[in-house]
Write a sequence for this structure.
């Protein structure tokens, strides 16, 4: 490869916030893209993204920007993706590849199939595992994906070349790339991401609506801060994620309710041995996962 020539020409990003903006900044820092064009819901968001050098210019009409784009990244809340897919579908160029940054895959792929139809092979689903509580262009940073996992969930219609192009883009962001089936992805992330967010939101909401909420928050310390951190995440985005993956999430919620019932029974019966056993298994698993 010519070292002076970027790996990608034009990249179009729908949603140049934390996810999309960090993708753009990482590629720019790596010298891997010639031009980044952004689409967003408000002109003010796009102005901020341009001021921060996330995008080079704001897009106005997909018909003018999509046909010659190397990659179109849709980095919006998942509920917005079907409308965006429908908007860009008529303008996909021969070499254009569409990908996404959604936290759910089954619903996103279904929407892509409905919009792209015979061109579904041009859509390569992906999910960068590198979120944060803050959102918007100001939250974007070039190192967000460094040594973070990006899961690609290829479709049967994806050619090796298109799959490799998307992997190469994420590799330019210094991410670690993994492959899962869409079904594996949604089942796994219902358990390790979507359920923890649901529980964190639920706990903080429970305390926030109590009459003496201020008293509880006054004495909340580091344990509460650690557990509740993700309740500061974007409500709209997590509303969409929970609804989009509701089947897998409901299954995980039922499993967790069973675990809570078991803990309640141990407390009711003053079964300290069972409590300690559960706590010990959890402690060991957490330490092994965290490398403690």
């Amino acid at each position: 490869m010519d070292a002076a020539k970027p790996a990608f020409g034009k990249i179009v990003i729908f949603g140049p916030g934390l996810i999309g903006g960090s993708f753009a900044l990482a590629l720019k820092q790596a010298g891997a893209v010639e031009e980044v064009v952004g689409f967003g819901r408000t002109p003010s968001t796009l102005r901020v993204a341009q001021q921060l050098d996330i995008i080079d210019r704001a897009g106005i009409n997909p018909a003018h920007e999509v046909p010659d784009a190397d990659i179109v990244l849709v980095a919006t809340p998942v509920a917005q993706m079907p409308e965006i897919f429908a908007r860009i579908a008529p303008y996909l160029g021969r070499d254009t590849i569409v990908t996404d940054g959604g936290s759910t895959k089954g619903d996103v792929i279904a929407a892509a199939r409905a919009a792209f139809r015979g061109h579904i092979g041009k859509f390569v689903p992906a999910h960068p595992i590198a979120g944060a509580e803050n959102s918007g262009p100001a939250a974007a940073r070039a190192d967000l994906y460094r040594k973070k996992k990006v899961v690609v969930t290829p479709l049967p219609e994806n050619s090796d070349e298109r799959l490799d192009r998307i992997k190469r883009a994420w590799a330019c962001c210094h991410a670690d790339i993994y492959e899962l089936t869409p079904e594996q992805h949604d089942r796994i992330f219902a358990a390790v991401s979507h359920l923890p967010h649901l529980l964190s939101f639920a706990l903080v909401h429970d305390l926030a609506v109590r009459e003496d909420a201020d008293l509880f928050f006054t004495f909340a310390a580091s344990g509460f801060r650690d557990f509740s951190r993700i309740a500061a995440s974007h409500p709209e985005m997590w509303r969409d994620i929970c609804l989009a993956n509701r089947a897998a999430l409901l299954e995980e919620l039922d499993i967790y309710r069973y675990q809570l019932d078991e803990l309640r029974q141990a407390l009711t019966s003053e079964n300290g041995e069972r409590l300690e056993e559960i706590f010990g298994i959890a402690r060991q698993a957490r330490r092994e996962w965290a490398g403690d």
